[in-house]
Amino acid sequence: MYDWIKAGHVIALIAWMAGMLYLPRLFVYHAALAPGPGSAAQSATFKVMERRLLKAIMNPAMIATWVLGLTLAWTSGYYASPWLQAKFALVLAMSGIHGWLARMVKDFAADRNTRGHRFYRVINEVPTLLLIAIVILAVVKPDF
Length: 144
Description:
Number of helices: 5
Helix content: over 70%
Number of domains: 1
Strand content: under 5%
Distance between the termini: 29 Å
Low-confidence stretches: none
Radius of gyration: 17 Å
Structural class: mainly alpha
Mean pLDDT: 95
Order of helices and strands: HHHHH
Oligomer: single chain
Largest sheet: none
């Protein structure tokens, strides 16, 4: 059963990370829209895309990643390993960014965004850097 749980964990992680990488990219394009009535239709489309990505893909995938990951940690006995504790801290950080991005979806939906597209271009790289570190920890399992 362990391998099936691990497969589910990897699948959920891929779906979560797809959203974590795509949502800030949507923000880049949304924030770049010129203000005014001429961009209202595009803004409305971005709002729908952002909300659906968060609610239908990212939130369920994050929950599944956590549930399956904690199950793996417990059943494997790795929960006390320093590499897994470091990975856990990075996944907590990723979850915090997820929450922050969810708040940004609400801000865009209410037309309260105050940041420019360049800000979101930079933020778009943070999940990638965390993902690299998380994968290295999970695969290499360094002995600290």
